[in-house]
């Protein structure tokens, strides 16, 4: 499995993620035919091709404005986990991450996925051990007459 992350241009914080599990080739560029579409004037229609090979992933630059790793223009390079590629000298940064596909045992059950959507149920640390008591009468703060009598 591979995840491509678009990074903020200044802070280099994640802005958007794309995760792929089985594709042997991934394309990045301006064209909507790409797997990752980036709308930037310096990005070519077909700017980068990522090829899954036996030894891992290869990053192949196709763009007229080049692709950069550590400030150096590349034609082709082996992708490394955590590597950041820049599309064109002043273009967007994409970070590459690899992860093993989760096994069936590690995948969450349908019930746990549903529970995770209920506030406080997804994380066991947030669960309440006992139910809150039910109100049995009317709170005096809700009744102005009894609120005055309480003074």
TrEMBL record:
Database matches in InterPro entries: FHA_dom (IPR000253), SMAD_FHA_dom_sf (IPR008984)
Pfam families for the chain: FHA (PF00498)
SMART domains referenced in this protein's UniProt entry, alphabetically: FHA
Segments forming domain FHA: 26-74
Name this polypeptide is given: FHA domain-containing protein
